[in-house]
Write the structure tokens for this entry.
Amino acid sequence: MAKKFRSVVLTVGLAAGIALLGGTPATAETAPGCSRVTQIGATKILKGGGETIASIKQFVGCDKNYGYTYVWESWASTHRGFDAGAGLWVKGTGDVQGYNVDPKNDREVWSDGLRTVNKCTKAYGAVGRGEIVYAANTEERC
């Protein structure tokens, strides 16, 4: 019983320490089918209607590029019934490739992994409800 209590106190103490420092424990994104991905380029913050909606990121791993969209809790909690999507603009193709849309109110979506590490790409993300859709892409990475 003493070991269990000590473990709880340590966990609570660690959480309190993190809160005092103003941070939260970091979580690493993991692409479907690839356990080690690295973000390339800057995160694009998607805004619309005066609100911050989502983060759009591009990752590389397992010899593939991935687009990633993460809808912020602060927006999702007041905008039920939204869809989120992620894909990649591949230079020379003229459209978004590997695009996936996740079910209603799913806050995290990955594009398909594309074998485009030798091409110029941008992550593309979109979030919307009905006819109102907000979209953005990251900077081009070659």
Remarks:
- Helices lie at 2-20, 73-76.
